[in-house]
């Protein structure tokens, strides 16, 4: 999605800063990984640790130093209003993976312009992998990221973080229709599976119950790699979306998946 008041050069400046942020907090994240941590349940029963809070505080501190006029929305500490630009951060996307020693959690950093996703970063501290995206381009490390050419659900490799996220009957039925129609289905991975989709290693991701900090960074990466990412009605994802996310490698595959969601 192009933004008339911001240019690709602006995205490069902001992505360079996002990479600095990820470099800054990666060792902090890893210092807590696979160590004894007190796990607290939030109001929605999702877990949080001192690692989540420490990393988010460090991210916010650095953003406020560099771009004091920008807004910030974080998973753990809430929002700071700003102007046209707002950073949206998830210090540890995949806290359940993190607290059980599973290494495919990530740090998500997104920048929105007038509430629309502009650029995003997925950093995977344990593996050292990183995806970035801006209008018209996605990168895995320093190389180009491209989705697969898959156009048929029967050929598709399907991923979701957990079948447990589909809590009501209609959501569960939609999940079963798509995942059973796919060539194979796999579970686990949180933000990592969207990176895999951007790099062409899987073809469909379906999830629900996500928050803006879970998905805003993913949008520029999936779209920049040539894929599609919307809500379950096919609408663009915004910070006001209800958290039902469908990502697909190609427009035709996406259209077929949307049709299957609705039976």
UniProtKB/TrEMBL annotation:
<comment type="pathway">
    <text>Amino-acid biosynthesis; L-histidine biosynthesis; L-histidine from 5-phospho-alpha-D-ribose 1-diphosphate: step 8/9.</text>
</comment>
<dbReference type="GO" id="GO:0004401">
    <property type="term" value="F:histidinol-phosphatase activity"/>
</dbReference>
<feature type="binding site">
    <location>
        <position position="92"/>
    </location>
    <ligand>
        <name>Mg(2+) 1</name>
    </ligand>
</feature>
<dbReference type="GO" id="GO:0046872">
    <property type="term" value="F:metal ion binding"/>
</dbReference>
<dbReference type="InterPro" id="IPR000760">
    <property type="entry name" value="Inositol_monophosphatase-like"/>
</dbReference>
<protein>
    <recommendedName>
        <fullName>Histidinol-phosphatase</fullName>
        <ecNumber>3.1.3.15</ecNumber>
    </recommendedName>
</protein>
<dbReference type="InterPro" id="IPR011809">
    <property type="entry name" value="His_9_proposed"/>
</dbReference>
<keyword id="KW-0479">Metal-binding</keyword>
<comment type="similarity">
    <text>Belongs to the inositol monophosphatase superfamily.</text>
</comment>
<feature type="binding site">
    <location>
        <position position="90"/>
    </location>
    <ligand>
        <name>Mg(2+) 2</name>
    </ligand>
</feature>
<dbReference type="Pfam" id="PF00459">
    <property type="entry name" value="Inositol_P"/>
</dbReference>
<feature type="binding site">
    <location>
        <position position="75"/>
    </location>
    <ligand>
        <name>Mg(2+) 1</name>
    </ligand>
</feature>
<dbReference type="GO" id="GO:0000105">
    <property type="term" value="P:L-histidine biosynthetic process"/>
</dbReference>
<keyword id="KW-0378">Hydrolase</keyword>
<dbReference type="InterPro" id="IPR051090">
    <property type="entry name" value="Inositol_monoP_superfamily"/>
</dbReference>
<keyword id="KW-0028">Amino-acid biosynthesis</keyword>
<feature type="binding site">
    <location>
        <position position="93"/>
    </location>
    <ligand>
        <name>Mg(2+) 2</name>
    </ligand>
</feature>
<dbReference type="InterPro" id="IPR020583">
    <property type="entry name" value="Inositol_monoP_metal-BS"/>
</dbReference>
<feature type="binding site">
    <location>
        <position position="214"/>
    </location>
    <ligand>
        <name>Mg(2+) 1</name>
    </ligand>
</feature>
<keyword id="KW-0460">Magnesium</keyword>
<keyword id="KW-0368">Histidine biosynthesis</keyword>
């Amino acid at each position: 999605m192009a933004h008339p008041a911001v240019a690709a050069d602006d995205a490069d400046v902001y992505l360079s800063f996002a990479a600095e942020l990820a470099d800054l907090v990666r060792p902090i994240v890893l210092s807590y990984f696979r160590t004894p941590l007190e796990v607290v349940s939030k109001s929605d029963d999702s877990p949080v640790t001192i690692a989540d809070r420490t990393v988010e505080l460090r991210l916010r501190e650095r953003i406020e130093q560099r771009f004091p006029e920008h807004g910030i929305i974080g998973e753990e500490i809430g929002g700071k209003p700003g102007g046209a630009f707002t950073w949206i951060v998830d210090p540890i996307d995949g806290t359940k993976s993190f607290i059980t020693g599973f290494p495919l959690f990530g740090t998500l950093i997104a920048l929105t312009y007038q509430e629309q996703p502009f650029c995003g970063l997925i950093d995977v501290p344990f593996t050292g992998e990183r995806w970035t995206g801006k209008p018209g381009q996605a990168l895995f490390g320093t190389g180009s990221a491209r989705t697969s050419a898959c156009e048929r659900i029967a050929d598709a490799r399907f991923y979701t973080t957990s079948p447990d996220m589909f809590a009501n009957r209609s959501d569960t039925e939609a999940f079963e229709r798509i995942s059973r129609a796919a060539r194979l289905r796999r579970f686990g991975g949180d933000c990592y599976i969207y990176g895999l989709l951007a790099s062409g290693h899987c073809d469909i991701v379906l999830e629900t119950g996500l928050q803006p900090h879970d998905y805003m960074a993913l949008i520029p990466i999936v779209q920049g790699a040539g894929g599609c990412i919307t809500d379950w009605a096919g609408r663009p994802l915004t910070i006001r979306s209800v958290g039902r996310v469908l990502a697909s490698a190609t427009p035709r595959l996406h259209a077929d998946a949307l049709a299957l969601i609705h039976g």
